[in-house]
């Protein structure tokens, strides 16, 4: 099995053009598991760790760009001030060893409905950067995620990073699993009280075929909030939780039931909002 | 905790001291050789083809394509088994390979040996099996009366214990039904072994197992070889907990080695491991407890149905234990306990830490709390009032002649305050110590606290007439520097419990020889019995002691003390005496005989009993159903702590396994198919789930036990589970009749 180890995006795209079916390897926390379980037998692997443009982060024009190779550990430890919600989400991923290996690009590329960073990225209207021989493009995350483990990435394209606006305001990410750490999400909720634009941003994970948001719930609570005092009437908080739960389309599987997921995400929504308000 | 008592004060690293494990540093630093690290020059890799169906008839098996693949050395099916076609711990009812009938998902159909593990995998995929899929029998209760799915029938054992006046009734009675899910031992080191053909036509097998000799006998029978031509050596074991009592790949890998004439290694993947060993029996329990108005138990009625899965394994002994200990460690004058272990098309179940006592403890302890509520009595007081004591009679009619510090373990557990926790003080927001942990799902205001107590017990050693003796050899000589060196040879399987440390401690304390080496455990010496039933300290520890005493006697004779005076050996000039040459003694140790249970479940079936109590403090987020166990206090009856640190290790590890069963560990089955055969989805507790443990060791030396010590491995797993569930009930007011308790059981019950 050939393994390409390009060091820049151009070489990566060349390798991808030569083998469009190649498996892209970043941290390996999804790919290697599938190989070990004999569910996938790569014919060709393109290893991305050496691609310099995929590393690190930068801010331009009030927007933040996170490279596809940024690991969960980097987010958790180095970017906690810059993207606090994402850092909370990153902390819930696996064990420290997994967080040292796994990457944002991998979370985006795998596109699991339970992907831990995706709810917060969705709340932030993140855009996925894709490079290809035809040129670069950005796709809003909501359009990028087309279904369970399926994305709008074309075979010749490479996820190079993710871009998001810089906003002020409190935020929180909470995730439920039937164990206190190292667990796949059965429900996840991300909220950002975007005081810059005075709007509530949300994202919900593991409660639908892809991560979801409830525009109705966001709109209603955005209107109900007192943005100067950062307070919200109790009934509006409760209504927000209910509206978020109603916007979900969860499944029952061996990890949880649809009923529990829907219930839980509503509770998380209400609590996360309350956490972000002034007490 | 206790610091233990030195058996011979002044002996360095002897009994009663927290001596470090000889294999501790290698294991922590990654240099310890586990069985998965085994390697032989020119070895082939073996791989198993397993049935994807829980129940099927096999119309045909075509191995021709696989056999012709380059690099494939051998493909074997049932027709290649030269000896007995079946094996089993107590009843040989399990085929080495399924040939006509598949009875559980994952049942082996064929094995392949190839030059590379990947080739073996591909060859397995190339074997064509034509299955006629059959509707699986998966309901244990229904299996009792259903058409047999095996020539030996669907009931492994039906045991109906009747004791005292069956018509007796109490002024107060409570009734409840309970359910226990299927737990897995979830050891970290998957099944692995290396078989090497021997010139005499026999085979040498390096294997991780709990009992070398019973493996040898089963392997030899299936290979059609006399046992002396099958030689087993223990390899490094990454956990066992009962899952290595049964044969897994032993016969397969030896068959491949003999057929190919080359060394063959097998190593299960994690998913295969879940299919490749037995699990803890799921249970359905019904109870009715009767008590007088003072809370004295009048009668316990119970019905227990254990799902043994497709093959017998140790089901007959597990249901024996479940019935014997169904009422818990209490004085019960009258009892009617109806127990069944049955065959289904679910995965086979057998031994797991706690062995039948775990399932019933969840039931009897829930009942004791229910009874306390009905009597408006403190549940601790109710237990104390009924606590077994020496001289009391069990529902089997057996009188407890040894120690039974039930009151003491309860009082000890209740006396241990959870130091960092004020009763109304969940941790601060934003920490991961709240329920939900790293997920940051709760604030302090969302959390309620509960406390629960549970008490349990079980037998030590094998029961019902089984003579599970152990053999040990001790040799003393002068090493190359002229220093005394003792070497212990014993077939006891070191599965992590610390027998290797204990054997050294015994030699040091009894013989005063500090330098103690251990020969590998193998079948060139007599059987040591299984590393299970909390028995190796008693049985093999006893055998090592007897061998040491025999050596001491020989030394004393050399010194001119006629009759031998072992106590004086420490005063002898051992170096001088050993100049005449080494001394080598082998001794076997038997426990006092027990008797089978009669048709009413009566008889002196057990050697000794060990007791423990656990008090759990849990924080629950009722709205989300998430649980964080904050503290476990335990009092445990240990007889004597021969290595206090090792005892604490067993207590902490056993509690972790009990916690797992309480709130997360379950093999999820759907129509006989396992839905979560991975550590992604079969969840075991992490460091964030495991609370601090405070333990008091109750040291009352057990008469007849070597050094007065009781086995300590199993009791921590028995009552920790019901203590945690009792605490969740206390916090939520819910009944929670099933374990593991899942978030939806709490959150949606409330909604």
Q: Would you mind describing this structure in some detail?
A:
The complex is a heterodimer of chains A (279) and B (751). In chain A, strand 6 and strand 7 form a beta hairpin. With 279 residues, chain A is α+β, with helices and mostly antiparallel strands. Chain A has helices at 9-18, 31-36, 72-78, 84-91, 96-101, 104-110, 118-123, 141-144, 215-224, 234-246, 258-276; strands at 3-4, 23-25, 45-47, 57-60, 63-67, 127-131, 137-140, 145-147, 150-151, 158-165, 171-176, 187-194, 199-205. The radius of gyration of chain A is 19 Å and the shape is globular. A 5-stranded antiparallel sheet of chain A has the order 4-5-10-6-7. In chain A, strands 1-3-2 form a 3-stranded parallel sheet, covered by helices on one side. A 3-stranded antiparallel sheet of chain A has the order 11-12-13. The mean pLDDT of chain A is 96. In chain B, helix 5 (212-223) links the parallel strand 12 (203-207) and strand 13. In chain B, helix 15 (644-663) crosses helix 16. Chain B is globular. The chains are: A alpha+beta (279), B alpha+beta (751). Chains A and B meet through strand 11 and helix 11 of A and helix 17 of B.
